[in-house]
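> forwarded from #structure-qc
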């Protein structure tokens, strides 16, 4: 984290190339977060670029006493994703990222279908439940950080997470019973 603060200090002092350290460090978590909120691959890439551009432009507003840089960055991403979701009706896309480990073609097809069903189920959640679920369950972020990103109380995070899980259970239940 010290090198992160140093990179921010250098950027604010005019060394714009120092921002690359932050991009390299947070590109993957940012893409995971945005990728789980938005279905369209092109839109995900555009939003991720917009997030880094906004972070660069607003870097002087970052306060390390209030949050970690990652939390601040994910807050920007969350807001941009929510705005994008509000502007566009959800679409279902089957273009999923390849699995981490490739097994048999059958296992891969079953896994892709499960991920596609989860993506469709997530798209049915309202943005405030979806973002909390993605941050907590997919990105494994602590409740305190989620509360900060969402701008809500810890108890609201837990409540939204519980409601999201309950809705997902209802949406995905037919698949658990062998339906399609």
């Amino acid at each position: 984290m010290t090198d992160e603060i140093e990179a921010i200090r250098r950027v604010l002092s005019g060394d714009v190339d120092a921002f690359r350290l932050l991009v390299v460090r947070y590109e993957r978590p940012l893409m995971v977060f945005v990728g789980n909120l938005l279905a369209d691959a092109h839109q995900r890439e555009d939003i991720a670029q917009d997030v880094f551009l906004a972070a660069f432009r607003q870097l002087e507003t970052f306060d390390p006493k209030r949050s970690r840089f990652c939390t601040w960055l994910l807050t920007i991403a969350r807001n941009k994703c929510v705005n994008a979701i509000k502007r566009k009706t959800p679409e279902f896309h089957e273009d999923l990222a390849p699995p981490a480990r490739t097994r048999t073609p059958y296992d891969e097809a079953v896994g892709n279908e499960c991920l596609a069903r989860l993506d469709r189920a997530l798209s049915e959640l309202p943005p405030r439940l979806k973002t909390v679920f993605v941050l907590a369950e997919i990105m494994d972020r602590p409740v305190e950080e989620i509360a900060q990103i969402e701008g809500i109380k810890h108890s609201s995070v837990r409540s939204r997470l519980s409601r999201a899980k309950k809705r997902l259970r209802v949406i995905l239940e037919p698949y658990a019973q062998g339906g399609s």
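QC bot note: The CA atoms of residues 106 and 154 lie 42 Å apart. The first helix runs from residue 2 to 12.
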